[in-house]
């Protein structure tokens, strides 16, 4: 039969293994969180009409973009006066 000291020693060894395993899980979850998309801050959203997008961001043909996206899901394309929410530009 193991002595009291042996039992305590075994429990402490298991505790160390459990703490190490938990630390590894936390490290993994933190690494995973850093590679996934961050949630959008709803306080940082700005409403734009599609026509405004075309005027302010002319590098993309927004009509073609939305038609393509909506057609893919068999939805009716939005009109120029439809409002969409985009994330505000970061100011550095």
Walk me through what this model shows.
- It is built from 3 helices and 2 strands; from the N terminus they run H-E-H-H-E.
- With 92 residues, it is mostly helical.
- It has 2 domains: 36 residues; 46 residues, no CATH class.
- A two-stranded antiparallel sheet has the order 1-2.
- It is rod-shaped.
- The chain starts with a helix and ends in a 5-residue tail after the last strand.
What is the strand and helix layout of this fold?
Layout: H1 4-35, E1 45-49, H2 50-56, H3 62-72, E2 83-87
Antiparallel strand pairs: 1-2
Which characteristics define this entry?
2 domains, two-stranded antiparallel sheet, mainly alpha, 92 residues
Summarize the helix and strand pattern as letters. HEHHE
Poorly predicted runs: none
Mean pLDDT reading: 82
The total count of helices amounts to 3
Secondary-structure-derived class: mainly alpha
Silhouette: rod-shaped
| Rg for CA atoms | 27 Å
For the termini, the CA-CA separation is 68 Å
Overall number of strands: 2
Q: Which strand-content bin applies to the residues? A: 5-15%
Q: Strands of the largest sheet, in order across it?
A: 1-2
Helical amount = 40-55%
Major β-sheet, in short? 2 strands, antiparallel
Number of domains: 2
